[in-house]
Structures are given as structure tokens and as C-alpha cells.
Amino acid sequence: MKNSFLLSLVAIGLSLVTCFQSQAVEKKRAFEFLAGAATADVTPKNGVSMDGAISKPGPARGVHDPLTARAIVMKSGGTTVALAIVDMCMIEKSVYDQAKEIVQEKVGIPPSHVLAAATHSHATPRAIHIGRGPLDDAYHVWLSKQIAAAIIKAHGNLAPATVAHGSFEQPSFIRCRRFLCQPGTVGANPFGETGERIKSVAGTGKVLRPAGPVDPQFSVLSFRHADGKPLAVLGNFSVHYCGGYAGGLVSADYFGAYAKALENKLNAGEKHPLFVGLMSNGTSGDTGSIQLNLGKAKPWDRINASGKALAEKTLELIGGLSHAAPKQLASKSASLEFSVRKPSPERLQWAKDLLADRTAKVPHRWSRIYANETLHLADYPDRYALPLQALRIGDIAVAAAPCEIFAETGLAIKAGSPFENTFTIELANGYSGYLPTPQGHEWGGYETWAARSSHLEIGAEPKIRAMLLKLLGLLK
Predict the structure, then answer these.
(1) 391 forms bridges with which residues in the sheet?
(2) What pLDDT, on a 0 to 100 scale, did the predictor assign at position 17?
(3) How far apart are alpha carbons 37 and 71 in whole angstroms?
(4) Are 232 and 278 in contact (CB under 8 A)?
(5) Rounded Cα–Cα distance for residues 444 and 177 (Å)
(6) Mean pLDDT of the chain, nearest integer
(7) Burial annotation 240-259 (CB, 10 A radius, 16+ → b, else e)
(8) Residue 422 lies in a domain
(9) Is position 95 within any domain?
(10) Is residue 236, in this structure, part of any structural domain at all?
(11) Confidence label for 7 from pLDDT (cuts 50, 70 and 90)
(12) Is 183 part of any domain?
């Protein structure tokens, strides 16, 4: 009896130990952070349209440097989140949605947990169905598949990882491109209206000061494998693009140059998949191109120089960061419906009359372009919904919207976020044009002129900013 009793106690003890060990393993698995990164080519064939609503560089005639979809997939416990950055000027929601459907079907990541965004290189297609030839339609379908392929491959590369956040200031590369002018000095807009206060793209006026602030912060997310080898680095900067292109050649601009510069320096080793560099666009709707004086630079020189300079500062930064496995990973999303600033009957008649008479005098050199845009805008729905999203990666937060967001809005989101480390990715999950503030609309300027490039209701910015802050609050 005594031996039997002792054996029973031992059995119970072993059972409890096994139970506690099992619980400990499950708890460890629940908080284990996994990450994987991968790329997929998205370079278009010659002939694919790079035409924009305003800028018209013509079809692709060659490739200076290839275009890439770059993805990071993260997993913690039962939550998986994907982030994809695509070397593209802009991408409409339907293209993203098709990619997300493929991802959900193949690896089970729900669309609400996928954040995908364009970089806004101006030497790439604008995948918003501006060009609708057979090559363009086929390219949009293929683009969806390639975005999905990058995410699926990154999911297959999931492995124990750590992450760190850091930032540095780069004010010399950035300036506001909207300038507040003295009343009465700004010329008529393309519609023949006067009284605007802003000199921006294709504008004139007696400048008083920049019309808004800029955000000089360059944010960095650094991912490492469990053995300390580099896995991926995501940079985020609020500058529109760099430029300095040549002759219809495709280029990923400084976003791609930055990624390549990192990939040339960081090696994950033979035991791991290739290191991936990424760069997203922050809130650059009212900033100009990279400010980098190289004198009489040849095409592409400024792109390579600025990408390399930002990569070098990034490498210096991440060398001193403390990486750890974050214990929280989450995504929150919302859909907000907005009115479209559709043309009045009078504006529509003006556009038809102007386009019918090629000899008519115009108030602005872009008047006929905006007359054509007026006709396109008339075909838009009266209202449609915008996708908004926020991610949490430990103590780091990312807000995302499908617009070209002004720096003022990005700074307000950072200031109002419950997370100390927050940045915003624009042109995410769709394309909805510029997002001027109500004051920006009142002052006018290119970014407010009604077209496919600027069509949301005047009160859209406060609503979008408030919802993004609400999503960040829910993540906290």
C-alpha cells in the first residue's frame, strides 16, 4: 500500500510537471515573434502606360532599374500581419484587393491584416487604370499576383526574429512645395478662378512663406534573426520623390536606391533568406523632390546619391539599436465613406465647350488638362469608402491611408498617437488623391484643384486624421 501510494504521488507530480512545462511552452509560443521577408519583380513590359492624370511621361520605353514589391510578414501567437511596399507611383484599391484575396487563399492572412502601399516614384506606372490598353489591363492583373507572391514568399520565410525602432533627422533633404503668397498676386487657376493664395506646382505669386511645416524625421524599423543576422530594414521618409529621370525609362527612384544600398551592405548569411531593404513614403503630399545640390547632375545621379546617403545614416543608426521580440502584434482597420467633389453643371459645360474649341483662349496652360479631368470626375460615384489601417508592433505604431497626405496631418498624428514611436505610410491600400487640410483648400493651389488627383470632400482630412488616431487608440 505504501509503495502504491508513493507511486501515485510520483505519477501526480510528473503529471503536474508535464502540465506546467506544456503551459510554459504554449506561453512561450504565444509570445514568440516570427518575421520573414521576400521580394517579387513588378517591372512592366515596354508599352505599359506611365501616363498620369496630370503628368504624361508616355509609355515605358525601357528600364533603368527594376521595380520590386518588397514584403515583411510578422507573426506573434495567433496574429499574422503582412506589410508590402511596391515600387509604383500609385495603385488603386482593386489591384490591392485582388492581391489580398490571393494571400488569404494561399496562406490564410486576412485582408484586414495586410498593409500594402506604393512608394510614389514618378518613373513607374500609375496602376489606377488611367491607361486602359490591353497591356495596361494585363499588367494590373499581373501586378496583383506579384504583390501577393512577395507576401506569400515572406510568409514561407517566417522564423524567430527581433525588431527595433529608431529615427534620425534629415531636414536638408526636404521642403514644403506650397508657398503662401500676398493676396492678389496668384494667377488664375485652370478653371479661370482667381483669389487663391498658394503658389505650388505650375503656379505664380509673390511668396510670403512656406504654407505648411515639413516632417524631417526618417523612421527606421530594423528586423533581425534570432542569431542577430539582419533580416529586413524598413525606412520611412516624407519626401515626394527624387526625380532626375531620362527618356521614359522605368526607375524605383530613391526608394529603390535606398533599398539596394542596404541590401549591398547587409548580409543575412547562408543559413537565412536574402536580406530585404524597404522604403515607404510618409506624409509628402505637400513636399517637393529631394533637396540635394549636385550641380549639373546627370540623370539618376541625385537618386543614387540620396538613396546611398540615407542608407548610410540608417546603417549607423541600427548599429546602436537594441533589438527585442515584441510582445504585441495587431492590426486595426476601418472604412470611411466620403463625398466626391464632382463638377457642377456649369463646370461640366465649361469643360465640354473648352475641349470642343481648340482655338479658345485658356486662363492657365493646364486648363485643357483639367477640362478633361472634369469629364472623368463626372463619371466618379457620388460617394465611396476609403480603407484606413493601423498596425502595432510592440511599442511601435504605423498609421496608413490611401491619400497623398500633407506633412501637417502626419505631424498631428504623431503628436496625438498614444504610442511614443509612430509614423504614417501614405498611398496605402488604395488611391484617393491629395488630402489637403480645410485651410489648404481655402488657400487653393494645385493639390486642391478638382481632378482625379484631388477629389475628396473638403472636410475629409479631419475625419481621416481622427479615425487613424482612434485606430491607434484601439491598438493601445
Answers:
(1) 331, 398
(2) 43
(3) 5
(4) yes
(5) 13
(6) 92
(7) bbbbbbeeebbbbbbbbbbb
(8) yes
(9) yes
(10) yes
(11) very low
(12) no
